[in-house]
TrEMBL record:
Keywords: Iron, Iron-sulfur, Metal-binding
Organism: Ursus maritimus (Polar bear)
Residue ranges the record marks as coiled coil: none
Pfam families: Diphthamide_syn
Protein name, as recorded: 2-(3-amino-3-carboxypropyl)histidine synthase subunit 2 isoform X3
GO MF terms held by the record: 2-(3-amino-3-carboxypropyl)histidine synthase activity; iron-sulfur cluster binding; metal ion binding
NCBIfam families on file: diphth2_R
Family named by the database record: Belongs to the DPH1/DPH2 family. DPH2 subfamily.
Pathway(s) it belongs to: Protein modification; peptidyl-diphthamide biosynthesis
GO BP of this protein: protein histidyl modification to diphthamide
Cofactor field: [4Fe-4S] cluster
């Protein structure tokens, strides 16, 4: 099948390309492509190193959950892409999260081709990549309109996940939003539907995990990636089309070349007028108070010199018409246990035959 792949992929690719396949197939493809492409990269999954083993080679660039043997002085944005994988049945990008992650993060100006091993046909993914980016831009607008953000702790074993949670909470606070950390395991529509007050959810997971579910997945509220919350809450983040799409939350933390610190509270970036592209209304500037402001303390002083805990979540719960099951301890009369009905629901023994 290597012959049809090379015959179909004849676009003006220049002399640089990068592709993803399994290891035996990668060696065979690299042997056939190297005479045509002088600068060829074969990526490998960025699997975590075993405990006690040596760290990966420093010259390998890690991006999109993969490692690229990039030569010194070269940039990954200069390369086209050739992806071999998936199946003929996975036409929707939601069914192939690995391909979706690569299409979102790859440079928009570079060609991106895919090949289905079931049929051996290649396809230009430029149009599909544009639709996918437009969908993610819509989710960024939803995050800018949101007032309550739910942070889903999808991983507890990947390095720096605590630092990433603190960073996302600081982002939400700086943008004037309330944030809550939820540890629910694998996010499913029934689980997230238990929190109707949350406007958007942000999934904190490893880069090799599935991409955040799309709106077509049946979720009551949209589920975003950490990079999209960064674009929505950080006014210093580059505008749409210029900012990279990062799939690993570690790329957003201090020490990463992609880290963009928040502007100071007195910066003019916080006062820039912003209009929602969904509702058409003008968004008010966030009232961000520095961390040393006494108005941000968790304990407030009330009249008879008594300390009371001020919790926005408790105040919001008290204003709801339904606050959950009422135990009514000591108010229910005590009765003896009696024998219940026997049989199955379609025909109990005391119902007789119909």
């Amino acid at each position: 099948m290597l012959g049809p792949w090379l015959h179909d992929w004849r676009g003006p690719q220049g002399r640089r390309c990068s592709f993803w396949v399994t290891r035996p197939m990668a060696e065979a493809l690299a042997t056939l492509l190297r005479p045509r492409y002088l600068d060829l990269l074969v990526s490998s999954p960025a699997l975590p190193s075993p405990v006690g083993s040596c760290s990966p080679e420093p010259e390998l660039l890690e991006r999109f959950g993969r490692r690229f043997p990039l030569a010194p002085g070269r940039c990954l944005e200069e390369y086209g892409a050739f992806y071999v994988g998936g199946s003929e049945a996975s036409a929707d990008l939601d069914l192939d999260p690995d391909l979706s992650r690569l299409l979102l993060g790859w440079a928009p100006g570079q060609p991106f081709f895919t090949c289905c091993p079931d049929t051996g046909r290649t396809q230009d993914e430029g149009v599909r990549a544009g639709r996918l980016r437009a969908r993610r831009h819509y989710l960024v607008e939803r995050a800018r309109d949101a007032r309550v953000v739910g942070l889903l702790a999808g991983t507890l074993g990947v390095a720096r996940h605590r630092e990433a949670l603190a960073h996302l909470r600081n982002l939400a606070q700086a943008a004037g939003k309330r944030s809550y950390v939820l540890a629910l395991g694998r996010p499913t529509p029934p689980k997230l539907a238990n929190f109707p007050e949350v406007d958007v959810f942000v999934l904190l997971a490893c880069p090799l995990g599935a991409l955040t579910p799309q709106l077509s997945g049946g979720f009551f509220r949209p589920v975003l990636a950490p990079c999209e919350l960064e674009a929505a809450c950080n006014p210093a983040w580059p505008p749409s089309g210029l900012a990279p799409y990062l799939t690993h939350y570690a790329d957003l933390l201090p020490g990463s070349p992609f880290h963009v610190p928040l502007p100071p509270p007195d910066s003019e970036l916080w006062d820039t007028p912003d209009v929602s592209l969904i509702t058409g209304e003008l968004r008010p500037p966030p009232a961000w108070k520095p961390s040393d402001d006494p108005g941000c303390l968790a304990l407030t002083l009330r009249s008879p010199l008594e300390l009371a805990e001020s919790s926005p979540a408790a105040l919001f719960l008290s204003s709801r018409s339904w606050q959950g099951l009422q135990p009514r301890l000591g108010q229910t009369p005590v009765t003896g246990a009696v024998s219940g009905r026997q049989g199955i629901a379609i025909a109990y023994e005391d119902e007789g035959s119909s």
